Amino acid sequence: MRRARVAYSGAIHEATPAAGDAIRLADGRVVAESDVVWLPPFEVGTVIALGLNYADHAKELSFQAQEEPLVFLKGPATLLGHRGATRRPADATFMHYECELAVVIGKPARRVARADAMAHVAGYTIANDYAVRDYLENWYRPNLRVKSRDAATVLGPWLVDADEVEAPPQRALRTFVNGRQTQSGHTRDLVFDIAFLIEYLSAFMTLAPGDVILTGTPEGVVDVLVGDDVACEIEGLGRLVNRIVGDDVYGRSGRDASEDQRRTVA
Amino acid sequence: MPSSPFAPRSGPRVDVAPFRLSGTVVAALLNHRRSLDALGDAVHAAPYRGAPKAVVLAMKPRGALVLPGEPLLADDDAGELEVAAALGVVIGRTACAVAEADALAHVAGYLVVADATVPHASHFRPQIRAMARDGSCALGAAVVARGDVGDPDALTLRTFVDGRLLATTSTADHLRSTARLIAEISDFMTLAPGDVLLTGSAPGAPRVHAGARVAVEIEGVGRLETQVAREERSAA
Questions:
Q1: A210 — contact with chain B (CB < 8 Å)?
Q2: Parallel, antiparallel, or unpaired: how do β-strands B15-16 and A212-214 relate?
């Protein structure tokens, strides 16, 4: 089964696929997918993200793969649904998407052994985990100004139940910018696989239903500009579409608070 | 599937009179004047190559939160813990791209926080195994309204272990003021009502083991008392 959460006609609904470009709301209405507002497909708890978890991407960014996974947490304001807009700050010179397999936890996981780990997975969705590389600094890298920006972590469109997907998932990932393919990879190339990550994380932090692990991105990240349409695909899971918008939409000048800080404190 | 991901959130109910917290807790790192001093010349060498320019942050996951009456957790993996006193700023109004001059108007109040981390030497990579552990971030039992606290950037924090005063710090020693933090953070990350911002802690906080009694006092905000308990090893 695959499910979405959408807003339609004044309420939030669970939805399932219908024929063509339509979706079926839980109350029986069948509506065009372009007539709803897509939300992240489940109520998201803690957002756990991996860096440098594909050997090719780590090489692309001039890093050696880690002995221990590079893991960071993101805040709730960064979440965004399918077909949403993500702001590119005017001072950015390199902002890129990251197409990732997202693993959704279905039952509490505390000190779970690798052999039991996959039983804690509710399902999978697609994540587009944007980063603004200009803001990278070498302190707790990558920090939240790079990776936990408002509306810059796109999830969806569907939560696909784990029982519909082989364990672990063996799926191709692709990203298209304005219809041109820019990224290609395969989940078999994860440095730290899903079962390892659940074992590793649950050794010190209990994973709860709704927590989500963004497993990292392969090589092929390129700069995206205002007006670009970005589509992340994972074989059999769907196509997650998103648009880049500028500061003007938000009434911003493009110069952010940290610019003042650079002059006054550091 | 045993548990629907569409079920209501299973996170902790965080009722801290008179507010309900959202459960989102974000901590400002390296915001005490001594944080970088402690590293000496290493600040300018690899891998850091200079002091941080922007605010440095870490999120606390739901499982890290210790509610009033519960213990901080230690286990054999963690060994010794550093327990730092921190001022928790409770957001009262949605803060998105707020100016520094308007920032404190978005604060509902303040609470006492005791933040336990595993001592770690490197600040290069995120350190969630040291900083996001289950039962590591204790929140005080009450939020004191902003108007009753005065200047949040001139508060003394005291940490007691087994009744002995082991650390005295002040928010006056923070590199970024409370208002400055809210302005910089909300530029890229909207803060919502009930979110808690930890404004910083001094390096070299007291170290504790299981069994220790910990108390943190912040003048005008209150006193938090907890214990460090040894965590059971059994799997869930």
A1: yes
A2: unpaired
